[in-house]
Amino acid sequence: MAVLHVNDRPEGYYRYKGTAKPDQAAVQAEKTRKLLRDNKQRISFNATSVRALSIRLNQQIAQALCDGIKVTRLAAAADLSRWAVRTVGLSADDLVPSGTPAEEHLARIRQLKSELAEFEESRTMLEDHRLNLLAAARRRGVLDDYELAALSGLQRETIRKMTWGVQPEAGAIPA
After folding, report:
1. pTM, two decimal places
2. What is the mean pLDDT of the chain?
3. Distance between alpha carbon 44 and the CA centroid of its chain, in Å?
């Protein structure tokens, strides 16, 4: 705080040089925007990782079939149907036998399948977090449905249906 004296006024006066407190609604809206942007980016990264991992799993299954491993063993290791394993095997026609032992193929397939399961769990957690954020934002009314749709990557009606009746967890959007 500074005291300023004006020459033409003998009594002087005080002028406050601080900054005004930000509007709480604007602060909440900005926090919600940032959380939704980050969540959308994480979901997108997760989806990209799942696609790449699925491709690697399919290539490994096709190579194992090419190396002569039985469809039933591969289906059990990959936790897929025999039909799905055959379909994957038929889709890759340019492979040559690699000579890799069957147990090594099966171990790689199990590892890829477990990584894929971890990404699926992560995706479920991210989608639950997004639902919680959307429900909290709609309940507080800090953003309209169109802005929530733009930030989350979902359609406005989908958001309304998803969040209808959902009670957001306390602290979904930090104060």
Report:
1. 0.74
2. 86
3. 6
